Amino acid sequence: MLDINELQSGYGETQVLFDVSLQVKPGRVHAILGRNGAGKSTTLKTVMGLLKAKSGAVEFDGEQISGRQPFKVADMGIAYVPETRDIFPSLTVLENLELTQRRFQHRGGDNGWTLEKIYEAFPRLKERAGNYGDELSGGEQQMLTIARALLMNPKLLILDEPTEGLAPIIVKQIHKQLSVLKQQGLTILLVEQNFGFATSLADDVSIIGKGQVVWRGSANEIREDKATQHQWLGV
Amino acid sequence: MDISFWILQLLNALQLSMLLFLLSVGLTVIFGLMHFVNLAHGALYALGAYIAASVAASMGYWAGVLVAPFAVAVLGLILYQFLIKRMRSSGPMAQVLVTFGLIFALLDITRLIWGDLALALDVPELLAGRVSIGGIEYPVYRFFVMAVGLVALVVLHLMLTKTQLGAMIRAGVDNDKMAACLGINVERLFFLVFCVGCALAGLAGAVAAPLLSVVPEMGVDILIPTLIVIVIGGLGSLKGAIVGSLIYGFVQTFGAVFAPQLASVMIYVLLALVLVMRPSGLFPAKGG
Lengths: 235, 288
Ligand SMILES: Nc1ncnc2c1ncn2[C@@H]1O[C@H](COP(=O)(O)OP(=O)(O)OP(=O)(O)O)[C@@H](O)[C@H]1O
Ligand SMILES: [Mg+2]
Prior knowledge:
By secondary structure, chain A is α/β, with parallel strands linked by helices. Chain A has helices at 40-48, 70-75, 93-104, 115-121, 123-127, 138-150, 168-183, 195-201, 219-224, 226-233, and strands spanning 2-11, 14-24, 29-33, 55-60, 63-64, 78-81, 156-160, 187-191, 204-209, 212-218. Chain A folds into two domains: 1-77 and 156-235, P-loop containing nucleotide triphosphate hydrolases (Rossmann fold, 3-Layer(aba) Sandwich); 87-154, no CATH class.
């Protein structure tokens, strides 16, 4: 579904990605692991079109998307939950949700995400509907970014460290939500530092080290492979 | 100095504030959304006044006031497509220099078309005359200027807070990259907001025209007050634009009454104070 081929990218003159290739297959959860600064977020930003690739290709659903502007990438059916969450502070929770709900409702068909379903899955958001984005706790913000992304009724959901800095109980809730999404057959690309969280959700795993994919395999394989964990993740 | 004197000053202050609001609101929202300072905003105001005066000369005041905002918006559209769009990725210094240069280009174009002599625009019959209020006679037309500002404030407020388009604009001001990742064509929003901002500058010029003599330099004269308003009010927000305009209008008007010799520096002292205490202004947009 998402094919990243020999991607090179970075910030201005500084090259961060030297050779990133990975395939996210339809209906599967693919985790990208790696140490701080390895280039995981940079990979996602380049896929979204927030950064311009120096070379290489990104294909989505058989179409070339590298070089496209972020709004066009999003429009193709990719929803992105950034590590900075990026809730809009001047919008209420409801307005944050409606921003995607109103424009992407039709994509979902009969089984698509609606406001009601979102409130069912994240009851806290209903209670906070009238609050502004900057009045939310970290956990509420994270639920809101995920909810906002789901309301795009995407084909692919990209999450960048959704558990970072959150209390264990909230991490658990998010884990449960993502498992449900996985069961429903949503394709997910997940970047995580939390090894247990990532490998319990993922089918496939790619490890990025120093801007390259240094290991690829299944979640079960990496759980057993202590040497690789030690070398590339410092677990 | 009796009560009627103060009422007069109050009305003058309000009228100046509303005019400044029409100018500053476009500039501040354009800045909030695009991080782009259009120093030629004042020149568009002057063009609005000229266009209104010319059209009014043959077709009457109301035609002038209606045509001016549209004509200035079209000019904004041309500027955007040929100049500003290409400069979006260049740094602030280049943008300041280019729009600063644009002031002089537009100034010369104005002189070429209309010459150096001042034009006048008469108040329409409907708005001629005075009303008596609190023992003074105040021109109806000045009330009209206040009403135009107030209507613009209310309409813009409703548009920004109650509509989906308004939510998209606020999202874009907060964080344009994230807005784009949610499928919003932020560039197209910029374009729309830019044209509306230009239309408001044109409208401000048109309604201000009967209050002053229409000269090429009027756009340069209004630029500094407009910039002071948005710096005091805080960049990117409607609230900042209206509060900044009211502060400027009142300090300017009442400053001239209480301390005529200090009037011209008072607003700068206030500006400095605001910048020391709240560097991003009183009510800046939340995102950053
Ligand atoms: N905006 C930026 N400008 C310049 N360099 C950057 C920028 N953002 C990140 N980098 C650099 O790029 C490299 C990769 O960063 P990236 O954010 O992709 O890492 P990551 O794998 O997501 O790490 P983390 O787990 O800490 O989020 C780092 O060396 C970082 O310093
Ligand atoms: Mg990261």
